[in-house]
Amino acid sequence: MSEQVGGPQEARGLIRNPQDFWGGVVLVAIAVFAYYASYDLPGSRGFSFGPGTAPRLFCYLLGLFGLLVAISGLLTYGPRVPRYAVRGPVLVTLSIVLFAALIRPLGLVLTSFLMFLFAASGSNETRWIEATIAAAALTFFCVILFVYLLNLPFQLWPRFTLFGLSIAF
Amino acid sequence: MFDLLNNLALGFSVAVTPYNVLFCLIGALVGTLVGVLPGIGTVATIAMLLPITFGLPPVGALIMLAGIYYGAQYGGSTTSILVNIPGESSSIMTTLDGHQMAKQGNAGKALAIAAIGSFIAGCFATILVAALAAPLTSIALMFGPAEYFSLMVLGLIFAVVLARGSIVKALAMIVFGLLLSMIGSDLETGAGRMTFDFPELADGIGFANVAMGVFGFAEIIRNLERSSEERSLVNDKVTGLMPTWADLKACLPTISRGTVVGSILGILPGGGAVIASFAAYTLEKKVAKNPSRFGRGAIEGVAAPESANNAAAQTSFIPLLTLGIPPNAVMALMVGAMTIHGIIPGPQVMTKQPDLFWGMIASMWIGNLMLIIINLPLVGIWVKLLRVPYRLLYPSILVFCCIGVYSINNSPWDVVIAGASGLVGYWLIKHDFEAAPLLLGFVLGPLMEENLRRAMLIARGDASIFITRPISAGLLLVALILLIIAVLPMMRKRRDEVFVEET
Description:
The complex is a heterodimer.
Chain A (H helix, E strand, L loop, with lengths): L17 H20 L15 H23 L11 H20 L1 H13 L7 H22 L15 H4 L1
Helix pairs in contact in A: 1-2, 3-4, 4-5
Chain B lengths: L1 H14 L2 H18 L6 H8 L8 H26 L8 H12 L3 H36 L2 H18 L4 H15 L2 E2 L6 E2 L13 H18 L3 H4 L13 H23 L4 H16 L12 H16 L1 H7 L5 H12 L7 H5 L1 H32 L4 H20 L2 H19 L4 H24 L6 H4 L1 H30 L4
Antiparallel strand pairs in B: 1-2
Helix pairs in contact in B: 1-17, 2-3, 2-4, 2-17, 3-4, 3-18, 4-5, 4-6, 4-15, 4-17, 5-6, 5-13, 6-11, 6-13, 6-14, 6-17, 7-8, 7-12, 7-20, 7-22, 8-20, 9-18, 9-19, 9-20, 11-12, 11-13, 12-13, 18-19
């Protein structure tokens, strides 16, 4: 299963394999949530499936397998759940959301430049001068490639000329 | 035999004109260059490049498309190997060993063997298509909904069997993928399922978005929490760009097996290439003397799925051209392109426009050839890309990914879904769940549901249809046997693991 079995991080107590146990528990929770989300869909009528039949079928199955994973987490020994990092996931995800939010109003140039810098802040190895130059170079490359060579319908600059916006950032 | 040669000769006489070869070369080159950008997969590449073929005559356009298709697909394999982002569902398997090889400093070898395997598979599949197009079509016609459903069950069981870790966890991931694929409008009634009345979710959450999230973004997030030495995307010692004779010798049987598996499974519409790459990988793992090398950078682990998905891509033209059924999103785009040029795919193409049919098959082979001509010299350049420090590489990948996802539908919402999938993927990594079975479930979910529905309707609600129809029963039996074979040693091994501390 996993190589760390029996290693120094092995957990003690009732939950012998927390990695599997909590993984299974979350899957069961997802199954319950999905069941709730598809609760109002009509089910089978006679021979024909309704829109709700297959989703609920998969909910049952996910609940079942999630439960099995959780139970195996009680019966086998295994590693603890590794620690979650905060900075990387949060900043990377935020930079993606930032792209989604800005691409329409701000256009490709500012959005890719800002996203690059924002994403770069997720690593503690980033050197800012280098990153700024790289962001500008990448933006230039993307504009040439996607807009001029591939003719994709991207907007380059902000839709409304809001003066000072780029400086404010 | 004589027919075969005649047909191929006709095809090549159409395809091999200086202009057409040039179109193919340009197509393959541009397709590779765009497809190699991380985050821009095969579908996105072809969608972006379709317009450049519009001005050409039909045959030239199709040949250029074939070039773009192969270039894009190879570009997708390149990103699978270098940065662990599969361009499309059929290169998911390539990430497993390909990326491990890249981490060990063997990226060049992995890229070269992918191109060589694809080319060999392409050659074989071209001849196979020419020889078997007509008889195989009749087999495909024998497949009813029950058979398709059983075939997909078999494909999913393949995915479970080849999973690294626990079988239950792999099954859970498949079902999770199936469940996620249910989000969106119901195909038959149009009812929104699990959409919470968000119009943005009505079309589902999209393969490209989910794949990019759980593979690409999650990988980046995980890499960020490691220190730079631990991460070392590529070892400084890049050992040999090209595979050695020993490597080639080791891979040749693998490539042959992958080609056969891919050719057979590719004929069946509905995710043929995906199942083929999974099946070929599983098969290699089963026949290998030392299966534990797989998933840790075995060169056969790259050669098998790459040759299988290429062979399958080739033979998947059979259902497209004979039945008019596009087996995947890429083929659906090809149908769109053909329609623009006034070609309606279907049974009439082979008989009414033989020059087009055979010209297309010949051009696929030329596309393959171009690919190997262009890419073997480029391998060195792709590998150098890995030398870019990660602190600059990862924001660039993120920007490309976002632009790629956004450009498919011009939808910011897709970008958000990809980001959310990234967090899910991060969670999966933390709990040692595998993303590959999840993605396979996600791809096959809608098809499975559709065929299950139809089969049940035909059988008037009697579920025994799956075991009373011989082909379906056979497929399910194979699935069951596979599962048993996989479970037995697993149980034994786990017992060993409990007793033996640290292997």
